[in-house]
Amino acid sequence: MTNDLTPVIGLEVHVELSTQSKMFCACSANHFGVKPNSNTCPTCLGLPGALPYMNEKAIEDTIRFGLAFDCKIAEFSKFDRKHYFYPDLPKAFQTSQYDLPFCSLGMWKSDKSTIRITRIHLEEDTAKSQHRVIDGKRVSLIDFNRSGVPLMELVTEPDFANVDDVVSFLKEVQRIVRYLGISDADMEKGSMRLEANVSVGRVEDVEKGKLPNYKIELKNINSFRFLKRAVEIEIGRHKELINKGEKIAQETRGYDEAQDTTFSQRSKEEAKDYRYFPEPDLPPITFDKKTIEAIRATLPMLPSQKRANYKKDYQLSDSYIEFLVEDKIIAEYFETAMSCDTGNKLGPKTIANAMVNQKLHEKYPEPAGLVKKLIEITQISYASTEETLAAIDSVIFENPAIVKQYQEGKGQVIGFLIGQVQKILEGKANVVYVREKLLEKITN
Ligand code: ADP
Ligand code: MG
Ligand code: ZN
Fold first, then answer.
1. Which H, E and C letters describe 336-401, residue by residue?
2. What is the pLDDT of residues 74-93, one digit of tens each?
3. What pLDDT sits at residue 3?
4. What is the mean pLDDT of the chain?
5. Residue closest by Cα to atom 24 of ligand 1
6. Angle 163-180/56-68 helices, nearest 10 degrees?
7. What is the structure's pLDDT at 2?
8. Which of 56, 297, 305, 412 has its CA 20 to 30 A from that of 88?
9. Residue 318: helix, strand or coil by DSSP?
10. Which value, to the nearest 10 degrees, does the dihedral of the CA atoms of residues 142, 144, 145, 149 take?
């Protein structure tokens, strides 16, 4: 029965941009470890009559993010007001984008799946509520330092059919953001926030494009691991209910780490009406093709391109490649080391191995230093087999008394003999090999 059911998952990811100033005013966008309500002005406090103006850098960063996902970039775009009431939103609307987001119709491909990106838009973050007990009274405090910080939202089509693809995609989003240098995408700090929409349908329906007519929104989950668990739990719960012939109530759910369960946060109000309308205080934004291409030219080489290059040019294995591309700084270290390895004395595998397994990039801050060291090491074991055997024979011939001591049970003298071989070979002996051959010859 369960076999003909398949999960259907779509994602919404928020990323806070690490620009100097906020989205619509000149206040500092840094709100970590800052005295509450110190970075505010009439605009980001939402005071009547205060006028917004746009942060150009934030818009460009959003477009770069969109280009990284092959999105179409809008040549004509605008901001809209999205209305709802909440204490952390004193204007009673969030300045966001509705029908003309900066980026749309993107794509992300891995060797396992292809995910369509519906849109990437830019909006402002809200203030932050804190619930405390002060003098025995329960109070809610609001910090406006976060209010108005630029926030991108990426929405995917419901193209995920399993939770592993969800996690790889989200990790790639984080990696791309960090490669672009537009945010630290730190989930603990809330600069990257994950939401998953989950439903379960019949395989034959989903294959025909007929999606389940409900979805559960998983919200406020601040790690990949917890999101993975929450999605797994939801898939199991839905399958069970469907098999019992029950309907699944559309709602927003959270994840309880201590109990390892999901729980209802609120049932979804039908046809929620945000009364979107164009933001009258901001002009529309236009981009010509030339400007978009100029922004595209600023993109760094992204992880997917590096993966393909490392595979094609260096034939490295997937696990090596993943280690190297995980962090742009590590990838660049590897590339610089490769360019220092003139004449291909070491080759990509030796360099990658020194980094992946021995973490030598941590010991040698300069890639050139690592390459120099590795060349020294490999050259040390360069004495040929003939040279080595000849050296061993002459040491045995010249030290009959010592050899005799060994044969009579004084095992420790072997170290002296190895040392003599090393001396003849000027330190280029492979000690393991010398020991083996020496023992072979003197014990017979
Ligand atoms: P809203 O958040 O306003 O409900 P949408 O209905 O457009 O917006 O859906 C947003 C998210 O829900 C997208 O990530 C989309 O992929 C996902 N989604 C839509 N339908 C389903 C479904 N049947 N099952 C799972 N996810 C879905
Ligand atoms: Mg949603
Ligand atoms: Zn401000």
1. HHHHHCHHHCCCHHHHHHHHHCCCHHHHCCCHHHHHHHHHHHHHHCCCCHHHHHHHHHHHHHHCHH
2. 999 999 999 998 999 999 99
3. 66
4. 94
5. 199
6. 130
7. 52
8. 56
9. helix
10. 120
Cα 201 to ligand 1 centroid, rounded to whole Å: 14
Beta-strand relationship, 93-96 and 128-134: unpaired
pLDDT confidence of residue 220:
87
State the DSSP H helix or E strand holding residue 250, giving kind and residue range, or none if neither: none
User: What does DSSP say about strands 76-77 and 285-286: parallel, antiparallel, or unpaired?
Assistant: antiparallel
CB distance 157 to ligand 1 below 6 Å:
yes
pLDDT for the residue 382: 63
- Supply the pLDDT for residue 257: 94
Q: Helix, strand, or coil here: 283?
A: coil
- Pocket perturbation via mutation, ligand 1, pick of 120, 153, 211, 215 by most ligand atoms within 8 A of CB: 215
Which residues lie below 8 Å from residue 440, measured CB to CB, with a gap of 6+? Answer: none
- With a cut of 50, list the residues of the chain below it in pLDDT: 270-271
Residue type, 96: S
99 DSSP 8-state letter: S
Distances (CA, A) of 398 to 294, 325, 436: 75, 55, 19
Distance CA 11, CA 228 (A): 12
Ligand 2 center to residue 176 CA distance, Å?
22
pTM, two decimals, is 0.85
Structure tokens given for 158? 């419901």
Structural tokens at position 432: 């393991």
